[in-house]
Amino acid sequence: MKTKITLLLIILFSTSVFAQKNGLEINGWTNINTFKCSNPKFKNSSSVYSFTGNQLPNISVAVEDFDCRNKMMTADFRKVLQSDKYPNMIIKFLEFKKTASNKFEAVVEVKMMTVARKYNIEFSNYNNSLVGNKRLKFSDFKIVPPKKMGGMVYVKDELDLVFSLETKD
Q1: What separation in angstroms does the CA of 12 have from each of 18, 97, 148?
Q2: Which residues pair with 169 in a beta bridge?
Q3: What is the pLDDT of residues 120-163, one digit of tens each?
């Protein structure tokens, strides 16, 4: 029950944050705090995505463009994702279907560094944007969550990928 309430709050929060805009955030937790890394260049892009026909979106996002609103956290985030070696995160839509009047399901491949994983993600249509989120794990991508201060501060394995994609009518 607690998980469902948390998921509902994330969806509601993400729809209010991303209304009518592109947006991409990675939200995570440490043992003492939360963090949110967003990509302002993606948010400010003028891209509009189509989910009809055979040509589904294939989105490449520069890891170096993520900002965690804390200089040290941003540097650690980029280092963990090895942005110097693997400059882009790829989000590729493999399947997409309407399930209800305002709801959709997609199979999405997320590639970080050399590992690509497929996820089923539910989306909602909100003001000409598709809003969705998925709980991932660093370990899904063979990434060991970072630790600081001799392990006294550590990042938890789970993180949420939250995004909104402006769509064509």
Answers
A1: 10, 22, 32
A2: none
A3: 999 998 888 899 999 999 999 999 988 888 878 889 999 999 98
CA angle at 42 for the pair 36 and 48, rounded to the nearest 5°: 130
State both tokens at 57. Answer: 């979106």
Q: DSSP assignment of 78-120, as one string?
A: HHHTTTTT--EEEEEEEEEEE-SSSEEEEEEEEEETTEEEEEE
Considering the four listed CATH numbers 3.40.50.2300, 1.10.1060.10, 3.20.20.70, 2.40.128.110, the one that applies to the domain covering 2-166 is 2.40.128.110
Q: d(Cα 144, Cα 38) in Å, to the nearest integer?
A: 21
167 has which bridge partners? 49
DSSP state of 76: H
Q: What is the pTM of this model?
A: 0.81
Farthest CA pair distance, the chain: 52
Q: Which two tokens stand for residue 2?
A: 């607690």
Name which of 55, 43, 26 is nearest 138 in CA terms: 26
Average pLDDT score, the chain: 85
